[in-house]
Amino acid sequence: MIKVENVHKSFGEEEILKGISTEFDRGKTNLIIGQSGSGKTVLLKCLLGLFKPEKGRIYYEDKAIQDMDDEEQRQLREESGMLFQGGALFDSMNIEENVMFPLRMFTKQKKSDMLARVNEVLKRVNLENVNKKFPAEISGGMQKRVSIARAIVNKPKFLFCDEPNSGLDPKTATLIDTLIQEITHEYNITTLVVTHDMNSVMEIGEKVVLLKDGKLVWEGNNQQIFKTDNEDVTNFVYSSDLFKKIRDVQLKEG
Amino acid sequence: MKYLQDIGSYFLMIKKVFGSFTKTSVLKHLIFKDINDLIISSLAIVSFISFFVGGVVAIQTALNMDNPIIPDSLIGFATRQSVILEFAPTFMSIIMAGKVGSFITSSIGSMRVTEQIDALEVMGINSLNYLVFPKIVALMFYPFVIILSMFLGILGGWVAGVYGGFTSSADFIAGVQEDFIPYQLFYAFFKTTIFAFILATVPSWQGFYMKGGALEVGKASTNSFVWTSVLIIAANYIITQLMLS
């Protein structure tokens, strides 16, 4: 579980996060949605410890990140996996080395054990026979799956995903969403997905948080989001023609 | 004001490079990779330039010696002094600022643009130690490149002098051995080590703290070459003033 309490973050004069408070549950896919510039990525980077909020507290399980010493923060990062928007795979390493990287850095396992675990997670993300290829030699969707494999190889407690579907075709995007949700349930981890993709919201939004201009304006789940009358939600959700038509059909059917 | 901030940020980077070390087995692998990328891969261009510039120095000296009183051994002497004191340590370092410096900046800058550095940070790895420390260690082997450059520079001078008909082999070798001061070699290697540190850290700073996309990686590489060269020339002047005057 991750708890956020009254988090404020500014860059210069501009306040990006204006007192965000919420909870992200364990074993669920928690989605942070909002328009570009609403503060989603800044909130994610605050949660990851890449940005320090000026005010407010962020709790991992029961301990605030602000109260952790360097060693505890390092330990927390070891227990976290991150899926970046572009994959962020290391160009100079092949797929096997990329996935093995967290194991090499943080464990003292034998190479054969590490290799077995790498093959296990690659199989889990439906990738086989790509071990010796380099990131540039595989497709964007495959890179995302390798990135998921690298994020979960060290059995993390927390998984963070920054726009995991960007740049992917709808079918691959659905595959990635489904994979993230399956892994969340399988490993019982706290997963946070930053997205503005409404398909992801529909498919995996077990908890959805909507940000607007740095404020949390609504929270609920993928069932509630289509029923709420909250104006900010309707403005965001029905900004696309497809979802407007779905809403019209729903209204007609009562 | 920005220059002061940049200088501060550079020294803070150096401090962070030596804090929170990466696992030794991983670091060892990175150091060997950087020795290959930065040192071994530079040997061919260093050899080529050194040999021919040594030759040109010998020819230029010979062509400017029109007084018959001046002995032919001066060609060897001038070649040795030019190559050991300035050409090999300083000008080869400027060339390396272009080759190695832009490689370091563009590789670290590309990692910044594609979020690979963020990925390291998120994993709890000291990215500066992971990326920059192996380059500093690898470039501590740079004086060996300069030994090769010195040797090939003088050899190039000998080939050009003797086979160009400007001097005899015996006169050239006598000139190379004339008034040899071992302290000058110490001076040359001392400044080479300082230049190696500049070569490793300034381009790393340019790449690590760059912002933007692919275009900015190119700009950072150019800045890296300019600033590395400027610092090498400035350091060369200060070291020469302190050690030789």
Automatic annotation (TrEMBL), chain A:
InterPro entries from the UniProt entry? AAA+_ATPase, ABC_transporter-like_ATP-bd, ABC_transporter-like_CS, P-loop_NTPase
What domain of life does the native source organism fall in? Bacteria
Species annotation: Aequorivita aurantiaca
Q: Which residues form the ABC transporter domain?
A: 2-238
Keyword vocabulary terms for this entry: ATP-binding, Nucleotide-binding, Transport
Q: Does the keyword Manganese apply?
A: no
Q: Which Pfam families match?
A: ABC_tran
Stated name of the protein: ATP-binding cassette domain-containing protein
What GO terms are given for molecular function? ATP binding
Automatic annotation (TrEMBL), chain B:
Return the InterPro entries for the record: Permease_MalE (IPR030802)
Coiled-coil residues are none
Where are its TM segments located? 38-63, 83-105, 139-164, 185-205, 225-244
Q: Which UniProt keywords apply?
A: Membrane, Transmembrane, Transmembrane helix
One Pfam family from the record: MlaE
Q: What is this protein called?
A: ABC transporter permease
List the lineage, top down: Bacteria, Pseudomonadati, Bacteroidota, Flavobacteriia, Flavobacteriales
